[in-house]
Each structure stands twice: as C-alpha cells, then as structure tokens.
C-alpha cells in the first residue's frame, strides 16, 4: 500500500522560484511512490478578499502551475477545495472539539492579525479547516514549511482527541515532511529572509514567469559578501543561497556545485546560475501559458479530480458522523 501524501497551495499567479524548488518540485517526485492528493485551497484564500475575476483567474493559475510543473492527474488526485463540501463539514465538527485558547495560540494567526485592522473569524479558525483538509483523507505525510509545523501539531492533537471517542481510531496521525535540499530558498536581497512573493523589493524574488533577461538582472544584483570568488565553506548567506538555487535547478548537490565553481569569480557564477534557472523554468512557462488558454480542459480535469476526492472524503465523514450519532440523510 502506498502512503497517502497530501499538500495544497493558495491560489496565486505569482509563484516564486522558492515555491517551486521548496515544494512543487518535490511533490512531482512523490507521485511515483505515494498516493498523492493536491488541491487549491480557495476557501482558505477567502481570509484575504479579492475581486471575483482576479480570484477566479488565480485559482485557474494555481491549477495550471500544478500541471505545468509536473503533477500528473493520472497519478495523483487534483482538485479545488471548495468542490469537495466534506472539507467544510468536517471543519465544523472540529470547531466543536477545539478551544478558543488553542486557536489563539497559533503563531500565524497572531502575526497575520497584527497586520489587519480587524482579523476575520475565518483567519482565526483557519487551522480547523486545515486539519479537516488533512484528516479527511487519512493522510500520512504532509510536506510543510517550518511556518506550518504548529498547524500540523494541532491537527495531530485533534486526531488524537477524536480517536479517543471509541476503541477504534477515526483518523491516521499525519507526519510532517521537510526536504533537506532546496527547502528554503531565501531572498536575493535579504538572504536572512525566505523568498516571498510579497517581498517589497522587486529584486528580492524570482517569479516563475520571469523571463531570462529579468532573471539575469535579479541574480546579478543578488547580495553576496565582500569576497570576489567562490571559496570553500562556510559561505555567507547570500552566496550559499545562490549555490542552493543552482544545485536544485541542476539536479545536483550544493557540494557538486561548489566543486564545479570553486575559485570562479562571483560575476561568472551569477551568470551561470541565472542561465541555469532560466533553462529550468522555460518549459514550465511554455506549458503554463498553453494550459491557461484551455479552461475547458482544466474544468474537465477538476471535475474528475473532485469526484475522486469526494468519494474518499465521504467515507471518512460518514464514519465521523456515525461515531458522533449524527443521522445521515436518507
């Protein structure tokens, strides 16, 4: 039996190289040996309202990114969160088994609510829906960044709490997974911070739709250190970040890249790194544009994916309802 792996992303048409190397690239490899579910969390994204047409376009873009980067709907289940109503039904059940104190201690809620004049209830209860997303499919493995580990721990707490309702467990306890290489691509301008699509510095992030000329310009401006050539480690954060990017795009280890460019000038290495990144992104960009021109095809895939996901989701939700004494609709 293949292990069940689940991951998701919010709708956006501005993914960064960090999103790809730290997440999507690894998800593609998971398909070969795992039972994978990938979806777009459009309901989670409602915590930051957007104009309807912009939002719809971003949802399609997110689906296209999955496909363009190598997610295969024949090998994995690909769908939209709101297309499977069991997510919100199970989330409500979890609301009734969580305390206000538990949710208020979530670091992401504290950080995001401080930036908003009024934090929505949806932002506060976000972890309950995320837990439903994961537990609904008896997920065993969840690729997450460090900023989401607290949510996984809360998900495990909910699962354990629900499992104590009877002698037979309801949910599988999910385990977080974090890639060792390419997991944390940093800003080109502030290598102490993670690369982000919301970086106010236009030269801080490489976007997946950036053309080669723009990639070269950004990499050339990347902060390194006071030295002029590649030297043995340890490296300053800036040059270490460029080595990590180059290695991930070349399907090599940072040690391989260091050996190849040891003693080479920074200027030469930056040009080589930019070209390597551009070469990696070009076929992805071409496929992305083709997919976005055919929404009918995307709609067909999403309908099929939702049907596959809902079949599995119903089994879990029915079991939960039976344990709680909730009557099923006849």
How would you sum up this structure, described in words?
With 330 residues, the chain is mainly alpha-helical. The protein folds into two domains: 3-183 and 295-324, 3-Layer(aba) Sandwich (Rossmann fold); 212-289, Tyrosyl-Transfer RNA Synthetase (Orthogonal Bundle). Helices cover 54% and strands 7% of the residues. The protein contains 13 helices and five strands. It has helices at 17-30, 42-45, 52-68, 86-95, 100-104, 107-115, 121-135, 149-163, 212-220, 237-250, 254-261, 266-292, 295-324; strands at residues 3-9, 34-40, 77-80, 141-143, 175-177. Helix 3 (52-68) packs across helix 12 (266-292) and helix 10 packs across helix 12. The mean pLDDT is 93.
Shape: globular
CATH superfamily of the largest domain: HUPs
How many extended strands?
5
Number of domains: 2
Task: Looking at this protein, list some descriptive labels.
globular; mainly alpha; Tyrosyl-Transfer RNA Synthetase; three-stranded parallel β-sheet; 2 domains; Rossmann fold; 13 helices; about 325 residues
How is this structure best summarized?
The protein is globular and about 70 Å long. 54% of the residues lie in helices and 7% in strands.
Layout of SSEs?
Blueprint: E1 3-9, H1 17-30, E2 34-40, H2 42-45, H3 52-68, E3 77-80, H4 86-95, H5 100-104, H6 107-115, H7 121-135, E4 141-143, H8 149-163, E5 175-177, H9 212-220, H10 237-250, H11 254-261, H12 266-292, H13 295-324
Parallel strand pairs: 1-2, 2-3, 4-5
């Amino acid at each position: 039996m293949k292990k069940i792996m689940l991951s998701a992303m919010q709708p956006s048409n501005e993914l960064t190289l960090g999103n790809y190397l730290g997440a999507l690239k690894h998800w593609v490899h998971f398909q070969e040996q795992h039972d994978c579910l990938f979806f777009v969390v459009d309901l989670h994204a409602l915590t930051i309202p957007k104009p309807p047409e912009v939002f719809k376009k971003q949802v399609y873009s997110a689906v296209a990114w999955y496909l363009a980067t190598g997610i295969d709907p024949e090998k994995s289940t690909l769908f939209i969160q709101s297309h499977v109503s069991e997510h919100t039904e199970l989330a409500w059940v979890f609301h009734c088994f969580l305390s206000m104190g538990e949710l208020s201690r979530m670091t992401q809620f504290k950080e995001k609510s401080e930036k908003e004049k009024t934090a929505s209830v949806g932002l506060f209860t976000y972890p309950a829906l995320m837990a439903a997303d994961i537990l609904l499919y008896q997920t065993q493995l969840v690729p997450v960044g460090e900023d989401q580990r607290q949510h996984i721990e809360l998900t495990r707490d909910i699962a354990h709490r629900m499992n104590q309702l009877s002698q037979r467990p309801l949910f599988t306890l999910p385990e977080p997974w974090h890639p060792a290489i390419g997991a944390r691509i940093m800003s080109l301008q502030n290598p102490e911070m993670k690369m982000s699509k919301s970086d106010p510095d236009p030269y801080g992030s490489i976007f997946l739709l950036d053309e080669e000329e723009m990639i070269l310009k950004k990499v050339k401006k990347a902060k390194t250190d006071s030295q002029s050539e590649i030297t043995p480690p340890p490296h300053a954060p800036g040059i270490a970040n460029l080595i990590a990017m180059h290695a991930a795009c070349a399907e090599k280890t940072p040690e391989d890249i260091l050996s190849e460019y040891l003693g080479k000038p920074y200027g030469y290495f930056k040009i080589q790194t930019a070209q390597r990144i551009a070469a990696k992104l070009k076929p992805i960009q071409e496929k992305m544009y083709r997919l976005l021109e055919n929404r009918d095809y995307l709609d067909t895939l999403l309908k099929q994916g939702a049907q596959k996901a809902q079949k599995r989701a119903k089994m879990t939700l029915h079991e939960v309802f039976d344990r709680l004494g909730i009557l099923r609709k006849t």
